[in-house]
TrEMBL record:
Keywords annotated in UniProt: Repeat
InterPro entries: ARM-like, ARM-type_fold, Armadillo
UniProt source species: Noccaea caerulescens (Alpine penny-cress)
Gene3D superfamilies in UniProt: Leucine-rich Repeat Variant
Region Disordered, annotated ranges: 66-106
Full protein name: U-box domain-containing protein 13
Family matches, as PANTHER family: ARM REPEAT SUPERFAMILY PROTEIN
Top-rank taxon, per record: Eukaryota
Bias-annotated ranges (Polar residues): 66-80
Residue ranges of ARM repeats: 196-235, 239-281, 476-519, 774-816
Pfam families associated with the record: Arm
Length: 843
């Protein structure tokens, strides 16, 4: 049978039913050469805008380099004869002859495609099927026209997918490679997904031992498929993502890059972010991006794909925090032109990034500046050892300043994007923490206001924990932020700067640095301005409440002694009558959150300056009334779905009431305040709060204020005093019950039960309060202690509780009867008291 007869028969799908022989190397080479010629002729193929992975590896390309088959020579000899005899013909005639030869070869190649597709059938020998799919894979590398020639045979895709189940690595590699080529064409991606390829590829990748080439081709097929948004949703499965994350640690770099590419495509759909985070993609990619492993530093592709995934995830505020916690910081891209204003101090004496000057010990400068250059190599014995945070700050500053000086910190002179101007201004990159913190600090010193604004916003976003805040402080971020606060009058710059300082001030160490840089006077001046926005006011009060914290001031006085004279005087000057008046004005009309912060700063004024005339002269009583009248205390507990919101409101109300009670306690010491104000109003308000459902730890300051109001002269009062009785019932007894119930030392439990025994013996109403707060069960548990004093006190309190028959059921339910019987039978100390208690119980 001639070759043309075979070709015509295959074209009509009327193949004879005899067993097909193995494919010869001549046939495979012919298809390969034909595919290469078609690829050269058609340069305008319609591919996806995404990078499509249709290139073979070096082994396959090496196999394509031998086109000297007998069929090829025979076919070409008849078509190139004219050009051999007309060497002086025009270029156009040569191209016509080449086109005619290509068209003839294309027809013959399509015939062989049909033959190989027929050989994919399930009724053929596995070796024939393997050679057929391998030939089709090589043929598909010619481009879209070759893929179209394969896909015009209906059902061939299902046969190709079926070959992924083969036990042969070469068969699986060829089948996966062919699916990869088909998926590179936009038209066929949906067909590939519907053919069950995703499920078969997942099953293939789940095999315990799989050849590297098979993994590479299979993952690259997923890479091409996930270009389609609908297919991404199907690929974003927990099992597939778990496999891809595992392949990020593969020994082969091509497998790593392919896995990273699939994850980058999946991350383009925001709906996939949650499952990606749950499966643990952030720590793995952050490690690859930072190059913690030396093997990963040379792979630019995997680092690029890791950066793309993390940037997509960082668009969500919560996921951005998770990214930063892994030591990767989002950095705004501002363009290389913005860094032209950077002017390093080239000839100044070396200093640490936070501004601390290195002590100059040399008597005279060295001839060529070697003492300055090698300063870090000679550490004086009297100099404290530089901690890790300072060392990282020095390394980061050196790296970023060097890049800025040589013009390599950003290569683009202007940001180019297909999006809008707003999207151009929001472009980000990711850097490891050391370089990222130093880059942001460098940007804060530039002349470009947009760059400074974006840097301040990034500092605020990155200040998520104590380590990051201290890192920014050591890198020198506080000083430029305070300078921007003082010198820049534009609100677009001030608001990000204030937000950055607010987040940094959450650290007590950074608070001290902010105050040392002189930020408090500038913040107070901003607070005095009536046109300042509400959001800026809230953030400024946040910063001042952290710096001027009265509890921290009392602690520093106790542990470190009085504040130095210059610092104390500066605080008195800052907290003048105008500031107090402004704070009172804010507190009258502000939200509960601002009210609490304003009261806290006013309270600090009473600690820093005992002369409270400036505070009393203002309408401070109105502020206290507003703070102590919280609506949430009057509302009943809501339904279950609103319980969480109710508890949150109770916590916020507790903070405000606690701050107001502390301020009122200090104001009571002033004679002028007691003479000009009716303290009975505050007494009734505080008693009402004490009986409310306010969390117990917020009632401490309320109880202290009530006792102070009842006895301003600090004289000891009787426990039966009405105020003291309420304090005992609603504050002391619940606290003692908690002390007995929760894990604590035996000494603390003994102290609590002895105090309860004293209260029960003196205050008759205390037994009902003790039972209502759940004190019976911990008292019964204390009966099993080996401490005789503890057991005696517990028996005494339980005996007083048993006088009320309503408590009998609770005592029995707590398991008191068996314990009391053991005490009586063993005749332990105080067994007679246990016997009396047993007789009172209905047992």
């Amino acid at each position: 049978m001639s070759l043309s007869t075979v070709a015509s028969g295959v074209g009509g799908l009327e193949l004879p039913s005899f067993r097909l022989l193995p494919i010869s190397s001549t046939q495979i080479q012919f298809l390969t050469v034909n595919a290469r010629k078609q690829s050269r002729r058609r340069r305008e193929l319609s591919f996806s805008p995404f990078p499509l992975l249709i290139h073979s590896n070096h082994r396959l390309r090496h196999g394509f380099s031998k086109p000297n088959s007998s069929i090829d020579r025979a076919q070409c000899s008849g078509e190139t004869g004219h050009s051999d005899t007309t060497e002086k013909s025009s270029v156009a005639s040569f191209e016509d002859g080449e086109e005619a030869r290509s068209e003839s070869s294309s027809g013959l190649g399509d015939s062989y495609v049909a033959l190989f597709v027929r050989m994919l059938g399930l009724d053929n020998d596995p070796l024939d099927r393997e050679q057929a799919v391998d030939a089709l894979w090589k043929y598909s590398l010619g481009g879209k026209k070759c893929v179209d020639a394969i896909m015009k045979f209906h059902g061939c895709l299902n046969l190709i997918v079926n070959l992924l189940k083969s036990e042969s690595s070469s068969t699986c590699e060829a089948a996966a490679g062919l699916i990869r080529s088909i998926a590179s064409v936009n038209l066929y991606r949906e067909s590939v997904a519907e053919s069950g390829a995703l499920e078969e590829i997942t099953a293939l990748l789940s095999r315990p031992s799989l050849a590297t080439v098979v993994k590479e081709q299979s993952i690259c097929a997923l890479w091409n498929l996930t270009v389609d948004e609908e297919i991404r949703e199907k690929v974003a499965d927990f099992d597939i993502l778990r496999l891809l994350i595992g392949f990020l640690e593969d020994d082969d770099v091509n497998v790593k890059e392919a896995a990273g590419g699939v994850l980058a495509n999946i991350a383009l759909s925001r709906s996939n972010h949650k499952i990606m985070v749950e499966v643990g993609v952030i720590p793995k990619l952050a490690k690859l991006l930072k190059g913690d492993n030396s093997d990963n530093k040379g792979s630019k592709v995997i680092r690029k794909e890791a950066r793309n995934v993390l940037l997509e995830l960082a668009k969500d505020e919560y996921y951005r925090i998770l990214v930063i916690e892994e030591g990767v910081v989002p950095i705004p891209i501002i363009g290389a032109d913005a860094y032209k204003s950077f002017r390093p101090d080239l000839y100044s004496w070396p200093s640490l990034p936070d501004g601390i000057k290195v002590e100059q010990t040399a008597k005279a400068p060295s001839r060529f500046g070697a003492s300055e250059l090698l300063l870090g190599l000679n550490v004086d014995k009297n100099v404290d050892e530089v901690d890790e945070a300072k060392m990282k700050a020095i390394v980061g500053r050196t790296n970023q300043q060097f890049l800025a000086r040589i013009g390599a910190i950003e290569f683009e002179k202007e940001i180019k994007s297909e999006g809008t101007v707003k999207s151009q201004q929001q472009q980000l990159t990711l850097l490891p923490c050391v370089d990222g913190v130093a880059r942001l600090v460098l940007m804060l010193g530039l002349a470009d206001e947009l760059a400074v604004t974006r840097a301040a916003e990034s500092v605020a976003d990155a200040s998520i924990n104590e380590d990051m805040r201290v890192s920014f402080m050591e890198a020198g971020a506080v000083k430029p932020l305070v300078q921007l606060l003082a010198n820049n009058n534009k609100e677009s710059v001030k608001l990000p700067v204030i937000r950055a300082l607010k987040n940094l001030s959450l650290s007590r160490t950074v608070c001290e640095r902010i105050e040392a840089e002189g930020a408090v006077p500038f913040l107070m001046n901003l607070l005095k301005q009536p046109e300042i926005s509400l959001s800026a006011t809230e953030q400024i009060l946040d910063i001042l409440a952290h710096i001027l914290d009265p509890s921290k001031e009392m602690e520093s006085k106790f542990f470190e002694g009085p504040v130095s004279g210059s610092k104390a005087e500066s605080r008195k000057e800052v907290l003048d009558a105008a500031v107090i008046s402004r704070l009172v004005q804010i507190a009258k009309t502000a939200s509960p959150n601002l009210l609490r912060k304003a009261i806290s700063i006013i309270e600090f004024g009473t600690v820093a300056n005992p002369n409270m005339d400036a505070i009393i002269s203002e309408d401070i009583t109105t502020v206290l009334n507003v703070a102590l009248r919280q609506k949430v205390l009057e509302e009943p507990e809501n339904e279950a779905e609103e319980l969480e919101k109710h508890l949150l409101e109770l916590e916020e109300a507790g903070l405000t009431i606690s701050a107001a009670s502390r301020l009122l306690t200090k104001l009571i010491d002033s004679e002028s305040f007691r003479q000009t104000n009716d303290t009975k109003v505050f007494t009734e308000l505080l008693r009402k709060i004490l009986r409310s459902s306010l969390p117990l730890h917020y009632k401490d300051s309320v109880a202290n204020c009530l006792v102070k109001l009842a006895s301003p002269s600090s004289l000891p009062q009787s426990l039966n005093d009405p105020i003291n009785v309420e304090v005992t019932l609603y504050k002391t007894i619940p606290r003692l019950v908690e002390q007995m119930s929760f894990p604590s030392s035996p000494e603390a439990k003994e102290e609590a039960v002895l105090e309860l025994n004293r209260i029960v013996s003196e205050v008759p109403e205390s037994t009902q309060a003790l039972a209502s707060h759940g004190g019976i069960e911990p008292l019964v548990k204390l009966l099993e202690e080996r401490n005789d004093r503890c057991v005696e006190a517990s028996l005494s309190v339980l005996y007083n509780l048993s006088m009320d028959s309503e408590n009998h059921t609770a005592i029995i339910r707590a398991g008191a009867v068996p314990v009391l019987r053991r005490i009586v039978m063993s005749q332990r100390p105080h067994w007679n008291l246990a016997l009396r208690l047993l007789r009172d119980l209905p047992v």
